[in-house]
Amino acid sequence: MARTKVRPLGHCSRCTRAWWSDSSDHDRWNTVFANGRATGYLCPDCQTPEENAEAEVKEALLDYDHSGTDADGRLRVVARGGWHSMAVGTHSVVQSDPAVHLVLGIEDAHLRVGVGAHTDARLHELFSETCAGPVRTELERVGAEPGHRTLAYTATAGLPPANVLVVEDHAACTDGDRGEMVVLFSRQMSPHLLDAFAPPVADSIRTALQAA
What we know:
Layout: E1 10-11, E2 18-19, E3 30-34, E4 37-42, H1 49-61, E5 68-69, E6 75-76, E7 85-89, H2 92-96, E8 100-107, E9 110-114, H3 129-142, E10 150-156, E11 163-168, H4 169-172, E12 180-186, H5 199-211
Parallel strand pairs: 7-9, 10-12
Antiparallel strand pairs: 1-2, 3-4, 5-6, 8-9, 8-11, 11-12
């Protein structure tokens, strides 16, 4: 039987003490970053009160559990509930309900957009410059065609804060079919979702939230 060689996660930059994953104070160590790259570690005994307080605040506000890296290998961390990357594809709700044209949500720091072949191809215009390209590419891939309906914006209590739906109005409202599509979102909508939308769309959502 071979003996497993265990290596420490790192060493304190000040006292050179080893940082082990099973140590009793493992969660109290700080990683030091510069320009998105780890440059060292600080054990609990070597941290100043200010450094410890800074780490506590960042831990409360930033989502280190779902961090990512950019093209240069630098760490990307977003606020809790936010997102640093996106994925576009099919979604079970869109596939099973022809009245639902688009599903948008934040999950594990990823923005996930679901579309289908019946989705109105113009809906890529809802998104910011960063997000519109991938959505348009997926709509083209599945063969979506542009429609003619106008958009309405409605805040509702029936959705989680990190989700948005775009549905045909006769499926979501009781005011008859007026040729509209309804952008539905929670009255407690996550502000991070607004980053996915083009500025005029984000402004329309804010107006609807203020009126809710």
